[in-house]
Write a structure and sequence with these properties.
Layout: E1 5-21, E2 26-39, E3 42-48, H1 58-66, H2 82-85, H3 90-107, H4 111-114, E4 127-129, H5 134-143, E5 149-153, H6 159-169, E6 173-177, H7 184-194, E7 199-203, H8 211-220, E8 225-227, H9 234-239, E9 246-249, H10 251-254, H11 257-269, E10 273-276, H12 283-292, E11 298-299, E12 316-318, E13 321-323
Parallel strand pairs: 4-5, 5-6, 6-7, 7-8, 8-9, 9-10, 10-11
Antiparallel strand pairs: 1-2, 2-3, 12-13
Helix pairs in contact: 1-3, 5-6, 7-8
Length: 337
């Protein structure tokens, strides 16, 4: 008996508008894995940006996708079944997005409507100020001064002065992301020094896996501390109860939409705030993320804005305000395969 499923993958290099630097790494482009899933006449697209930090490569993700037998699923609406076939991570994320796009398209509704959050107001997204010379960071903030939220990368020598320079030209909500860039004692001093700058939150100030130190750091600063590299899915959220004020969840880390929604529910049950984050990606992944964003307190979904051009536009942006396509499915323009 022949399969009703077909799966195709494609790797695309997405050039960035400018060099993107965080505490541990720099990019000039992102190599992303795109997948097209077909079931009969229905089709869906997915995307993921594999991350070395999580032990994933483009090759390993493509191999995992190609090795997955979708005939194990009960049909196009068996959206939970993928969790049995693949562990959390990038490969499952790409397929999960594609399956949700297919199911929503097959049903004739948008992805947000399929998830039960159609028409709900989305939180504004932050736009990122990557690490650079202080004058460059300040100028980027000045150019974005009409946006409601900026997210500034820190975790480098002179970052407190850089935040001060940005605050001179930007009066909106300011979030920080250290990407594990500080030591525990250093983080305490930096966060104390940063408190006068009205910081909305700071992500992952120290290296992951140090929960007791992270708990002490959270208690020592008035700035809300969020975990990022310390959390992937709902299980990781539960381990952080009482350790941090909130979590930055990403579809890639959790393994797609289903796992991310479960992680958000876990965070809510534990009275933790939720940010929904992104990678360097096109409108395919960003639209999937934005379709979930109504469930989060904060959004950091500016991936397409960091590209030189977006080959598959979906969610649109107007000074941080996101608008989802009408659908059905993701509603993204064109398909990657």
């Amino acid at each position: 008996m022949s399969s009703r499923w077909t799966v195709a993958t494609r790797v695309v290099e997405l050039a960035l508008e400018e060099r993107f630097t965080i505490a541990r790494e720099t990019w000039v482009s992102s190599h992303n894995v795109f997948v097209m899933v077909r079931w009969g006449d229905a089709a869906g697209s997915g995307e993921v940006a594999p991350a070395d930090r999580w032990g994933e490569t483009v090759s390993s993700v493509v191999a995992a996708i190609r090795a997955t037998d979708l005939d194990e699923l009960a049909g196009p609406f068996d959206l939970e079944g993928l969790s049995v076939l693949l562990p959390p991570g990038a490969a499952r994320c790409a397929l999960d997005i594609a399956l949700h796009d297919l199911a929503a398209s097959h049903a004739g509704v948008s992805l947000a409507e399929l998830l039960g959050v159609g028409g709900r107001v989305l939180p504004p997204t932050s736009v990122t100020v990557p690490i650079a010379d202080v004058g460059v960071m300040q100028n980027r903030a000045r150019l974005l001064s009409d946006h409601p939220v900026l997210k500034m990368k820190v975790g480098f020598d002179g970052d407190v002065d850089a935040v001060g320079a940005v605050r001179e030209v930007f009066s909106g909500a300011l979030r920080l992301d250290a990407n594990e860039g500080w030591g525990p004692e250093e983080a305490t001093g930096r966060l104390k020094a940063l408190e006068p700058f009205d910081i909305e939150l700071c992500e992952q100030p120290i290296k992951a896996g140090q929960h007791e130190l992270l708990r002490d750091l959270t208690a020592a600063t008035a700035i809300p501390v969020f975990a990022d590299e310390d959390v992937t899915d709902a299980t990781g959220v539960a381990r952080l109860a009482g350790v941090v004020d909130g979590v930055n969840l990403k579809l890639r880390k959790a393994g797609g939409i289903r796992a991310t929604v479960a992680a958000i529910a876990t965070a809510r049950a534990l009275d933790m705030k939720v940010m929904l984050g992104c990678d360097l990606e096109s409108g395919i992944a960003a639209t999937a993320e934005a379709s979930v964003a109504a469930l989060a307190d904060y959004a950091d979904l500016d991936g397409p804005l960091l590209l030189r051009s977006d080959p598959w536009p979906g969610v649109s942006y107007d000074k941080g305000i996101m608008t989802l396509p009408a659908g059905p499915g993701l509603g993204v323009e064109g398909a990657p395969l």
